[in-house]
Every structure is written in C-alpha cells, then in structure tokens.
Design goal:
This protein has 214 residues and is α/β, with parallel strands linked by helices. It has one domain: 3-Layer(aba) Sandwich (Rossmann fold). The chain is 39% helix and 21% strand. The longest helix has 14 residues.
Length: 214
C-alpha cells in the first residue's frame, strides 16, 4: 500500500481534522490521495468528514467498512457485543481497495497508537502489517511532550518510520507550554513539526515531508 498511516497520542487529538486538511491539500496540489478510516467507534462523523473531503470520490462504506456503535476501543466494543473483531474482513477490504484505486492512501487509525482490537492485535500491529510511514498527531499544549515521546518510541520499536509530528493548535492555550513544545520536540526526536492552525484551510505548498511525492 502506498501512502501514510495517521495515528494519535490519544483519542480526540485531531487525527480526522488533520487527515481532512491533508487530503484536501494534497488533492489541491494534484495528488489523487484517498483517505480511509477503516475502523470507527461511536458515531461515523469522522468517516463522513473524510468522505466530504474528497467530494464523494470514494463511497463512505469503503472509507469506513468496520463500525462499532459503542464509543469504545474495538476490543471492549467486541466483548460487550459478544462478537469477534473482523480481522480477516479488514484485510480483504484493504486488499480490494488497492486493486480498485491506485492510491496513495491516508489510513487513519482509531484512538491512540496502542488501542487494542484483540488480545494480541491492535493499532500498532495493524500499522506494522500495512508497513506505511507514520504521522503522529498530538495536542499542542501541556502534557504533550510525554505523550508524543512515548508514542514515537513505540512506533520506532515496531519498527516503522515516522514522517513527522503534527501539533494541533485547536483549543490550545497560548501559553508557555504551547510556545516551547515544538522546538523541544524537534530537538528531542529529530523529526519535523507541523503546527496545524485552529481553522486550517487547504494549502498547496505543504512541507516536503507531507507532500507524498517521494
């Protein structure tokens, strides 16, 4: 599979907000990228946002084939509904998409990097199967240093490459933590940082590491 995998340091950090922005920006620049949210929990607003970002170029059911009504990690949702996580169905769906569309694909995970689907299979193991470079989305403010560093450590141990870090400025306080976090994270990880504005509009001039042209 060609493209990238988008993960977060936690749930609700802005993965879909960023993936929507990234999708629109790449397509505006002429890259025929398609966003995927193969697994979702709770409502389907994230998948619907991705569907709108490509103006319906790919059906909602192809963007999000696996959906759990309860807003829980898939492992918990499966246990409460007495079902088995449909791992083979997930694999077949992604194989079919690669046969149908040339890509590249932006595959958005569910929750954070270590969210479990089964006892021994979760976001980390799934991303390892896909073998895509990873983009990490995080809150911009206080507490994000620890969350980002732990997430980066686990991704590199997978081992998978990390393209860079997205710090989401939505609802971030304009305080010392928000001001100093980007430089500190760049120094400690050696990775590029992208500051995602609160009202992000698509841009054609993305940083090279977000261009997907290499």
């Amino acid at each position: 599979m060609k493209g990238a995998f988008i993960t977060g340091t936690d749930t609700g950090v802005g993965k879909t907000y960023f993936t929507t922005f990234w999708t629109r920006s790449l397509r505006q620049a002429g890259v025929p990228v398609l966003p995927l949210k193969p697994i979702s929990s709770g409502d389907r607003s994230d998948a619907e946002s991705l569907h709108r970002s490509v103006d319906g170029a790919i059906p909602l059911e192809e963007i999000n084939p696996i959906h759990f009504d309860r807003p829980l990690a898939p492992l918990a949702a499966c246990r409460l509904s007495h079902q088995v996580f449909p791992r083979e169905s997930l694999h077949r769906h992604l194989d079919a998409l690669q046969s149908k569309y040339p890509g590249p694909f932006l595959v958005e995970g569910v929750g954070g990097w270590r969210v479990p689907f089964e006892q021994d299979f979760g976001v980390r193991e799934w991303a390892r199967e896909l073998n895509l470079p990873v983009v990490v989305v995080a809150r911009a403010g206080l507490g994000t240093l620890n969350h980002v560093l732990l997430t980066i450590d686990s991704i590199l141990q997978a081992p998978l490459p990390v393209l860079g870090i997205i710090l989401n400025l939505h609802q971030a306080l304009d305080d010392d933590a928000t001001q100093t976090n980007p430089q500190i994270l760049q120094e400690l990880t050696g990775l590029p940082i992208f500051l995602l504005p609160a009202q992000a509009k698509p841009i054609q001039e993305l940083p090279p590491w977000l261009s997907l042209r290499t």
